[in-house]
Amino acid sequence: MPTIDLVQQSHQKIFDYLANHRLPTPCLVMDLEEVGRNFQALRSAFPQSHIYYAVKANPAQQLLNLLVSLDARFDAASIPEIQACLESGAKPHQISFGNTIKKAKDIAIAYELGIRLFAFDSLQELEKLSRFAPGAQVYCRLLMECSGAEWPLSRKFGCEIEMAKDLLICSLNMGLQPYGISFHVGSQQMDVSQWDRAIGSTAQLFQELLAAGIELQMVNMGGGFPGQYRSAVPAVTSYAEAIQASLDRHFGDSQPITMLEPGRSLVADAGVINTEVVLISQKSYTEDRRWVFLDIGKFSGLVETMDEAIKYRIRTPWDGQGYGPVILAGPTCDSADILYDQSDYRLPLNLQPGDQVQILSTGAYTSTYSSVGFNGFAPLAVYCI
């Protein structure tokens, strides 16, 4: 399938680097300047919001160092992520422990490290926070349906709005500071209107809690801003305009503090995976589709191809020549390691084993999904330039 040129120029620095450095494949190459541009664009679009980078998207130390220098804040999901942020120079007040599923000992460690902002979505989690993070600011995550998202985050996270109200009242009685509400409308969210219902529900909850004597201060609007894969995506300014309109409509002049937790939108388009074609084969005399096996697959970083949800763009040495349909798969001895079968991928007919191809906009949720050695393959190497 011919490559879409929507963000080709943003990858040119990486292409030039790969042309001048013989790196073992597979590997991920990150352009830190592109990360910086993406961060500044988001900050410009949302000047009133605190931007907390979702560390799980890509925790490369050089990337964290850059974001600290840009005065970013950080959404951490574990103690190692918190420690990585602190080692990069982030201050404890710049870090939110945003995972709603935490061991009691990890809450205690985070509190000892100075973290005072914690997420929760259940009474059981709140009880742990009360015991091991006394006096901390807490925010409750609401359950969302995530319509319009290519990588939904529904069901596992959040609670119903009535439960959230009760839990926030309980938090005050348990010696914690009820600080705000969070929600996430799904990763790679393509519908800019999806924030409106969530903001409306949040504003309703603010009012109900105010009547109960609790004045919340913050709304964490999550991430969801997209990377550029096969389909065109709205500009970040479109999201900003829609979200600000929703805040104005539902909160009026009493605007809360707002947080954003972008991950994908900051780092996806700043990364390219360089991979090698291992085998090209056909399995039938009547099937015209070739099987193209790469030296990277689901277990070495491309988990988001599960159900063919995230559709990456592919660059080859033969682009612009004749194309034919393919099934793309990884190298492991697992039948689940098929990347694309139903999404009509087409690659040049001249493609050969040994050719190096690039998988574009792969800076997010790849290195962190890479296994530590399934089938003996090494984890995905990361180079920051």
Number of strands: 19
- What is the string of helix and strand elements? HEHEHEHEHEHEEHEEHEHEHEEEEEEEE
Outline the low-pLDDT stretches.
none
Report mean pLDDT, rounded to a whole number: 94
Overall helicity = 25-40%
What does the largest sheet look like? 9 strands, mixed
Taken as a percent bin, the fraction of beta residues is 15-25%
CATH evolutionary superfamily of the largest domain: Alanine racemase
- What's the total helix number? 10
Tally of discrete structural domains: 2
N/C terminus separation: 29 Å
Integer-rounded radius of gyration: 22 Å
Q: Which architecture of the largest domain per CATH?
A: Alpha-Beta Barrel
Class inferred from helices and paired strands: alpha/beta
Task: Describe, in plain words, how this protein is organized in 3D.
There is one protein chain. This protein has 385 residues and is of the alpha/beta class. The chain folds into two domains: 16-25 and 268-384, Lyase, Ornithine Decarboxylase, Chain A, domain 1; 33-264, Alanine racemase (TIM Barrel), CATH 3.20.20.10. 29% of the residues lie in helices and 22% in strands. The protein contains ten helices and 19 strands. It has helices at 12-20, 32-45, 61-69, 79-87, 104-112, 123-132, 161-173, 194-211, 236-251, 264-267; strands at 27-30, 49-54, 73-76, 95-97, 117-120, 137-141, 149-151, 177-182, 187-189, 218-220, 257-260, 271-281, 290-294, 314-315, 323-329, 338-340, 346-348, 356-360, 381-384. The strands form three sheets. Strands 1, 12, 13, 14, 15, 16, 17, 18 and 19 form a nine-stranded mixed beta sheet that branches. An eight-stranded parallel beta sheet has the order 4-3-2-11-10-8-6-5. It has a two-stranded antiparallel ribbon with strand order 7-9. Strand 5 (117-120), helix 6 and strand 6 (137-141) form a beta-alpha-beta unit. Helix 2 (32-45) crosses helix 3, helix 7 crosses helix 8 and helix 8 runs parallel beside helix 9. The longest helix is centred in the middle third of the chain and has 18 residues, at 194-211. It is elongated, with a radius of gyration of 22 Å. It starts with 11 loop residues before the first helix and ends with a strand.
